[in-house]
Amino acid sequence: MSFTLQVLADRWWAHADGVRDAVRAAVAGAAVAGDLVPVAKGNGYGFGIPRLAREATRLGTPVLAVGTVFELEAAAGFPGDLLVMTPYEPVDTVAAAVWDEVLAGPLAPRLIRTIASPAALRAVAIAPGPARVVVEALTSTGRFGFSAAQLDTELRSVPVSAGLAAGTLTLEGLALHLPLTQPSVDHRTDPGARWHDTALAPVAPAGASARVREALAWAQGWTTLLGEVQAGHEPDAGASNARVEALTRAPALWVSHLDDGELRTLRAALPGVPLHPRIGTRLWLGDRDAFAVQGTVLAVHPQRRGQRAGYRQRRAGRDGALLVVSGGTAHGVALEAPSPASTLRQRAVAAGSGALEAGGRALSPFTVGGRQRWFAEPPHVHVSLVRLPSGVPPPSVGDQVRCDVRMTTAAFDRILGLE
Known about the structure:
- By secondary structure, this protein is α/β, with parallel strands linked by helices.
- The chain has two domains: 31-285, Alpha-Beta Barrel (TIM Barrel); 290-416, Lyase, Ornithine Decarboxylase, Chain A, domain 1, CATH 2.40.37.
- The protein has helices spanning 9-27, 49-59, 72-75, 93-103, 118-126, 148-155, 158-166, 210-231, 237-246, 260-269, 281-285, 344-358, and strands spanning 3-7, 37-38, 63-66, 81-84, 111-115, 131-136, 169-177, 253-256, 275-279, 291-303, 308-309, 314-315, 320-326, 363-368, 371-374, 383-389, 400-403, 414-416.
- The strands form three sheets. Strands 1, 10, 13, 14, 15, 16, 17 and 18 form an eight-stranded mixed sheet that branches. Strands 2-9-8-7-6-5-4-3 form an eight-stranded parallel sheet. The chain has a two-stranded antiparallel sheet with strand order 11-12.
- A hairpin with a 4-residue loop joins strand 11 and strand 12 (314-315).
- The longest helix is centred in the middle third of the chain and has 22 residues, at 210-231.
- It is elongated, with a radius of gyration of 26 Å.
- Residues 187-201 and 346-359 have low confidence and may be disordered.
């Protein structure tokens, strides 16, 4: 009873190497350093965080990003810096307690925290000991982050300024989590949240995408602000040197969801700014033919029309066979996010699927005889019951059947090919 992920290792590795090389070429600059930041979060895109930490080590990247502080232990085998993308918030007492533990341990010098609120930035600035942080901007994705006005206020505030001057707070850059689709926000209409596009005329190339324009707006405002912070409040030579060190890497942009063409455009417009693209899905799942999900056929039962089976004793609509296949809800089978339904076709598909499910029919992710087959009933915890119509030769017990499962919610009994 096994539900497995079969990987063509050489092809999977070649794809990851190709993404790394393409990204490095896109962000390379004569005077600045930048590199791919692999992302290993959640279930590790089906491969597991420890395995992706090993793969990131093989790729030779200096930083690995994880989703939350709770994932740091799984990624601890990575030898470089570890960026936690979910913002650090002292008011989240459960996560803050875990942060206290890891910051007191051997990982502390390698940790980079994401900060997305004024309260969190102040708390980190006055806390004892060194702290490395990236601050997150409130982009058009609209999740969390600083508005332009908040960044301006906080970087000039006494606690943050004191932390920078003392060298206890190190800014590693600005994080921009951009949307998957091109934003339609007109930044000029929202001066409290974003820097104006009107200031971009000298640097925004003709034809730049909306994502690039938004990134450029933030980058220009951010670097201008850093220059003003650096120029002001120089109490003495020692503090000045500490401030310079604390702001050395601050102009860097940590960006998500920019393609290579957009990265090249951004690089050309910002020749002095290091770019760190955070990439997960494209890196690990970009070549879908490099791996296959498989369930094992555990039993094959002939069925007559009207015959009942399963927990819910549903009737067969026609003659055929009932397959018992390994792979159920514990493996992520049939678990999916709500449909985006942003086009007429997507809405029609969602409506059709909903109507079928309301009538007790749901298409399974298992492919037999070249087609996806219907569930006999919702999947069980570890197995699924799948109907096969008459005229289609049934597989034998022990055969493997393909399964189209969502990799970010999948769990496998074994991953084969990467041993």
